[in-house]
Amino acid sequence: MQTMSVQIQDSYVQNFMSYVNSHSENVTISKDKNLELDPYFYERKKRLHQIRDDVQNGKMRLLTQKESDDEIELFFKELENN
User: Fold this and answer.
1) Residue 40 has what pLDDT?
2) For 2, left (φ over 0), alpha (ψ -120 to 50), or beta?
3) Which of 3, 16, 35, 60 could form a disulfide with 54 if both were Cys (CB 3.0 to 4.6 A apart)?
């Protein structure tokens, strides 16, 4: 069996469900809890894994808490000056 994600236009949902119900021996529908909570869950997950990999292999530098605080403070000072 294969798992797929399907996007259905609102106006076609009823037709799609009729099709699925008529082929229910071959198709199972289940809701993905992750997508219910966050429609971009898998895109975010992929991006976070990429960031983690970039930090681990040295492509991206991870700031210390102090460096991060300093960067944020500098950012707000620049905003105030503009």
Assistant:
1) 92
2) beta
3) 60
3 token code pair? 């798992």
Angle in degrees, CA 27, 29, 33, rounded to 5: 155
HSE (side-chain half, CA atoms, 13 Å) at 79: 6
Contact (CB, 8 A) for 41 and 35:
yes
Cα separation, 6 vs 58, in Å, equals: 37
* CB environment 36-54: b (16+ within 10 A), e (fewer): eeeeeeeeeeeeeeeeeee
CB 16 within 8 A of CB 8: yes
